[in-house]
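#structure-requests
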Amino acid sequence: MVLLKDGVRYFPHEYASEEELAQMVIEHYKDIFGVYSLFFDPQTMKTQTRIEARNDGVILDLNQNRWYILEVELAKHPLHKHIIPQITEFSIAYEEAATRKKIVNTLYSAIRQDAFKAATVQTQKIEDLHKALTDQIDAQPTIAIVIDQKHQNLTPSARSCHSKLE
């Protein structure tokens, strides 16, 4: 099957691994999440009760004042044994104030150490970066599941991120 959009031909690709798909998402995150978005490396979110969840990255959309916890998956992974438990762990970890504070501090340091990220923040005229990050991270994140193909057990609304990639 070939998809033709705006005069460009798109061919299906089977990803050999989740890492290969994740690399594609990282290379094209601005196309997926917007030109004023920033990608941050994967983080391990830990709770005081020792629940641990490692995401595939965090995306800040500075233009929309939204943030995403990124999870990249292959459709062949079992939904109820692999994908849903990870998403549940993200939700549990996010609920703890200490986790949110750690995310804010990690993103703040990453922006200050990266000239490209700092310049992107400056274009948005953000005066108090730490406060802006705190406000943004205190808002409920969107769990963005990027999957290599339609998954039979996901509802149409859950596939909305996937549809953007097709």
